[in-house]
Structure formats: structure tokens, C-alpha cells
Amino acid sequence: MTAIHRVVGEYLAALAVEGKAERTLKVYGARLRRFADWCGDNGKTEPGTLSATDLRAYITHLQANGGGNGTPRQNAVVVKAFLKWLVAEGKVHNDPFAAVRLSRPSRKLPEPFSDEEVRLLLKATRSTRNPQRDKAIFLLLLDSGLRVSELARLEVERIHFENGTAAAKVLGKGGRERMVPIGREATRQLRRYLSDRRSGWLFSGRNGKPLGVRRLEYIIEECARLAGVNGKRCSPHTFRHTFARKYLLNGGDPFSLQQILGHSSLQTVRLYVNLWSTDVQAQHRKYSPADSLLRG
């Protein structure tokens, strides 16, 4: 084990103390260990010997050989954050990677599900091993825009039922909590699925353990196959974008959407608005107050 491998371990331990999610730690760990291995293969064993040239060479290596866990840019972002931490901790005197500029990330969003595709996916849950649970998963994702990691960690006690609707107390990125409203149809299905259960993981397997992120992704992929929904990414994240699109088209405002989705800034919400501006224009043509009053 090199000195770089050792400080990678220290960095991950520090992130765990700060409350980083388990999945984030796993991703960061995989990316940084790969970087440390590359450094060792290239004669770099001490953090203080790293230079901007090394990061550029590592990015070129990833571009030529595959990004591994994530894209080359995503790997480089994690490595740059690691070097910043080393400087803050006094383990190196300066940050040689600060001079390396990364390409701007693509802001292309997954194509949302159409209304017909959502209906087909919901219908497909009737053919799964646990229809009530899987339909509740789909409706909750569709009606709340939760991240899959948030859904996986949700406990029954965090669902508050009232007057035919509900709200979920969600633990989001950075350990930030927020209340996410749930509509009547999703609430009705949740009650049906839970029956009299009042505690424990909201979505669990036969062993009582929570469904992991990969299992939740598989359930959606399987239902997409059963429903014949092809040609687009079928994932929890697609449900999140479907929720955002429908929320805006149905009259929701960007500020409340930001709060529901748990974004720390309006940047991504602005992207939603810009991307679906043609949909908004079509809605306006359909429901224009002046047109409806003065037509004919």
C-alpha cells in the first residue's frame, strides 16, 4: 500500500464522519483507489509528488481505457476534491490540480416517460412477484420525484398520513431533511401495501431487509421489459424527471419544485424549464385564457 492509498483511506473516513451517504462513499472509494493504483503503476507513491501533468495524464488514460466507475470527468472531479482536502488537512502544501480545468458536463436530461408508458409500467406491476409493493414504488416515484437512494432509506415512521394524502420526511443529500408531499392515488396505494404495518423499512424483501438501490432499479427494468417500454432509459431517475416535467406542465412553480426535489439551487430546475419550454407553449396554446374567451 502506497502513501496515496493510505491518505485515500483517511479521506473516506473523514467523509463518513461528515455524513456522506454510503453509496457516495462507495463510489468515491472506487474512483480514488483506481487513481491511487494508476499513480503506483506510474511511480507516484507520495501525495506531495503529484502535479497537474499527472491529473491530465490520468484523464487521458481514462479516456483511452474507459472511465471505470463513472465518466473520466466524474473521476477527475473526485480526485480534485481529494487533493483540496489534502491541502486543507496540511498533508500537502499546495494543490497542483487546481490549475487543471475540466470540460463542462453535459446537461442532457433523461427523456421522461410518456403518459402511456407510465400506464403500461403500472399495469406490468400486476405480473411481478409483489404487485402491491411494486405498484406503490412506481406511484411514489412518479408522485414525489424521490432519488432512488432516498426511497431505499425510507422508513414507515417517516410517512405521515393525513386527510387522504401523505408526506414523507426524507433524508436527502448532505444529510438534509425535507418534507415531500404525496398525492391521493399514491397515498391510497401506500395504505393498501402497508396494511396495518406501522414501522420498519418502507420497501423491503422477504428477509425484512430494505430493498437496495440496485434491486429497485431492477424492478423498474423488469417492468419495462414486461410492458414493452423500449428505446429509453427505464430507471428511478427517469421517474424523477417525469415527475418534474408533469409538475411544471400541471402548473407547479420552479421554487416549490426545487424544494420537493431537494436541489440546493435553482440551476437544475431552470434546465427543466428550458428543456420543456415547448411543452409549456403547447399547454398555453391549449389553455390560453384570451383564446378561450374570445375564440369564435
Provide a compact summary of the structure.
It contains 14 helices and three strands.
String of helices and strands? HHHHHHHEEEHHHHHHH
Instruction: Give the tally of β-strands.
Output: 3
- The parts where pLDDT drops under 50 for at least 5 residues are none
Per DSSP, the total helix count is 14
**C-alpha termini separation:** 80 Å
CATH C-level label of the largest domain: Mainly Alpha
CATH topology of the largest domain: hpI Integrase, Chain A
Structural class by secondary-structure content: mainly alpha
Helix content: 55-70%
Q: Mean pLDDT, rounded to whole units?
A: 88
Instruction: Write down the overall geometry.
Output: globular
Computed CA radius of gyration, to the nearest angstrom: 23 Å
Beta-strand share of residues: 5-15%
Strand count, sense and barrel status of the largest sheet are: 3 strands, antiparallel
The CATH superfamily label of the largest domain reads Intergrase catalytic core
Number of domains: 2
Supply the CATH architecture of the largest domain: Orthogonal Bundle
Give me the side-by-side strand order of the main sheet. Answer: 1-2-3
Description:
- There is one protein chain.
- The protein is mainly alpha-helical.
- The protein folds into two domains: 3-99, Tyrosine recombinase, N-terminal domain (DNA polymerase, domain 1); 115-283, hpI Integrase, Chain A.
- The protein has helices spanning 3-17, 22-41, 52-65, 72-88, 115-124, 131-144, 148-152, 184-194, 213-227, 236-249, 254-261, 267-275, 277-287, 289-294, and strands at 159-162, 165-171, 177-182.
- Strands 1-2-3 form a three-stranded antiparallel β-sheet.
